[in-house]
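Quick question: what would this complex look like in 3D?
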Amino acid sequence: MKKTEIEFTLNGKKKKVEVKPSDLLINLIREELYLTGTKYACGIGECGACTVLLDGEPVLSCLTLAITVAGKEITTIEGLAQDEELHPLQRAFLEQGAVQCGFCTPGMILTATALLKEKPQATEEEIRDYMRGNLCRCTGYVQIIKAIKSCTTGGEN
Amino acid sequence: MSEFKIVGKPIPREDARAKAKGELKYADDFSLPGMLYGKVLHSKYPAAKIISIDTTKAKQLPGVHAVLTARDVPHNETITRFGQSAEVGKGFEGLYRVLADKKVRFRGEAVALVAADTEEIAEEAAALIEVNYEPLPGVFDPVEAMKPGAYLVGEGDSNIICKFGCSQGDIKKGFAEAEVIIEDTYQVPFVDHAYLETEGGVAWIDEKEVINIRVGSQVIEHFRDVAEVLGLPHNQVRYIGTMMGGGFGGKEDITVETYLALLTWKTKKPVRLFYTREESILCHSKRHPFIMHYKVGAKKDGRLVALEAELISDAGAYPYLSPWVNLYATVNAAGPYCIPNVKINTYCVLTNNTFTSANRGFGAPQPNVAYESLMDELAYKLKIDPLEIRRKNCITTGKSLSTTGQVFNTYVALPEVAEKAWKALGETKKVEDKNKRIGRGLAIGLMSYGRMTFLHDTSRCYVRLESDGSVLIRSGIPDLGGGQVSLLCQIAAEELGVPMSKIRIYYSDTALTPLAGTTTATRQTYMSGNATLKAAREIKKRIIQKAAEMMNVNPEKLVIGEEKIIVKYDSAQYLPLLEVIKACNTEGIELFCEAQFKGPFTMVPDLSNIRGTIFPDFTFGAQAVEISVDIETGQVEVLKLVTCYDVGKAINPLSVEGQMEGGSIYGMGYALMEEVVMEKGVTLTPSFSEYIIPTAADVPEVEAILVESGGGLGPYGAKGIGEPSCSIIAPAILNAIYDAVGVRIKSLPATPEKIIRALKKHYFEGR
Ligand code: FES
Ligand code: FES
């Protein structure tokens, strides 16, 4: 299959890569660009582990064709912290014990970033509802919801 | 106990930062130059004869490096083990077959392996392998499979792979004395672990000709089993265990390691192999379904006098850990109650379903569903409060387990946790919807932590205090996400008086870290925690001894903390830790130690009547829920969930709460939604849209109540919590459904359809 060159911004840096029309974004990110923080857990859009931000909106990279990100901006979990300074959500996840095996964590945190941008004052109900596409098998979601809540304006912290 | 600096504090885990930053390299996040991709060809039929396998076309495909079938495996048939080194006799051994040979036993069984340049080529090659099958009838129901003349799943002359029993008192006399008798059958389904990280890893051969397998495994001791399959000395296979994206017992058996080892051995190239979600659900182990016939007898005042149970479980196509799981079920079958007359019989049977093995809780959650539902039934029948009937019958300190007779000499928290959980439900929630009925349910239980004592369990840990005051730990401990690794850091930090940031740990490597045993059986806090404590305390003793000489005081007067050796009650008098280290190093005093912790040892019990000490200790807990049931739709919503356990000592309360909450929701999935549906051996639920697990939207308000009696066998009196945490929520929910709408659901999951059906029956036909 013919490869096409595309250009996009990845975690704030310009990238030029060659992709086949059928290449999935998850494979481009993980296998070609070696950013393995984006996780595979189902491959068919049912778990949220592969979530990345596309122009700030959460998308499932296992269902996104790489070629469609041309000219756009992608943020993966690796792009969230500013050097050593963790993103407030990352810090909240640590402090609330919301990270167990951690396999859902990148997707959770990125989805939560989008939620907080959309609804900085999200209620617990809204958080539960927004996060329902991101599966976690370890935590029972309790500490995850707490962590996200603590980052809302008017949250506990 | 307030002198603790680090233990007992809710601190972020050692591994959490790298995970939150997406930097932690799990098994699949690793690659090597020239790496090939492995693929497994799985059987299409649940039961069939393999007439022939033709790999010619697959081998001819450009980019294919190896295509292997059973005859390419040096020792295709060995024995399933799970890391034990003690001899336990034939009763527990099962056949481990790497690739199907002559006959397939379940749909999804591995038939052939492929390694190729890319994943796509490997997939294409697998599809080109021509397997000529002759389908056989098979048997899919364990009760059918037990009957004489049933289709034989394996090569033996019976499908029954184990039969356990235990009894006390006189069961006939017991029922004769009973004033009420309840008899019923409960059923629980196949369920999946559904960890987010599927099974997989990367293998390569190094310059010493050692096969290295970098994999997510709860039992790195399988390096021995892989070596035996290949016919290599044990020290020629090395496991490098990664942090796992969840385990829950599903990474306790060998998953893909033998496939990886074979492919890298044949091709001499690095190989990566990962299961898709579909493969994970279709081909790897499930939780044992059980059919449980129970008969319980009591006096009018609610006192239990007799309990008889027959448990039949479905092992699926291969034994794996079935005997062990069934042993757990047998020991747990009479629950946490004092019953003078008990008789339990357990059978585990091969079928042509996907094989079953370890799953969080092992064999405990299944009988818990039955006996806790029956206790509830009894309470209603005798008009006794659910808490009261449990208080009246539960084991208390000094009493013994009614199945095995094992005596509890340390604090038994059952009455306390039951009361706390039940009370914490608080005021009944108000629900506006007129179709919704509110109900409450309670369940109590006990579950062992630590391996069976006749396995002669040990764990080792190496600790070294560096010359700059930093600490290095090496432990073979695998971490499945529960914080096992971080826990050891916390213990060493506490004992050596240094902050967590000064600890580095290397874990889960069979070549470089002392073997710590398996991350199974809720044993690591207890076993490896104690090994770490022992090693760190040995070093601490030497440091304090030296400091005492330097300060000219009695060593008993000294304590260690904040990187100082301090005179007790006089914090102005101290030596910096660094100074003492320097002095020790000058004199050649060893500031390193490898310690081993040994659990209590017993003999293998008589399996027809299992009595005496089988487990080192137990964790006691209670769970209570308030739910609503929609009588139009049958939908259950859990409104509040309380989980209360005596955890002994919470070394990291954040982690302990995380286990208790996570375990509760794991159990809630079991109760209400999860089932791997198999129809004649064919799995109908191979994805997360069919195999439904709880989401954030399903989770109720959860309250975790920690009781810290300090009575555990772990460091600082800790008990294990990982598995106990999930083991009784299902019956609590079933009991709440009964309380809400008056129907008793006797088979999991309690789906809306089952509830509606039961409600119709209840209203139109009477019960
Ligand atoms: S891997 Fe993309 S949604 Fe599951
Ligand atoms: S922390 Fe393990 S899946 Fe969420």
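Answer marked as accepted. The beta strands of chain A are 4-10, 13-19, 51-54, 57-60, 73-75.
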